[in-house]
Request: fold
Amino acid sequence: MIKAIVKNGVVVPRDPLPADWQEGTEVEVEKSSNGADAKDAAQPTDVWMDEVEAIAALGDPADDLRLEAAIQDVRRREKELARKKLGLDP
Reply:
């Protein structure tokens, strides 16, 4: 079962969709029995975090890998520059 929230009138999944759910896959959506009550009882930060997690779940995992590789590359270059400035590298 995929959990989702309604945001601006659109159903947004909270978790990644199964790999076999291709474009055009028909699904059924029904309101959770605790949907409205849980949202009313939740703290504003809880609701906000649920929305952030739902949006993040829509992201491409390959983007995360590219970002991590770019961060590692920047760190490596900064270390090289620092070593050169300190005279540790020729």
User: Anything to note?
Assistant: Strands lie at 4-7, 10-13.
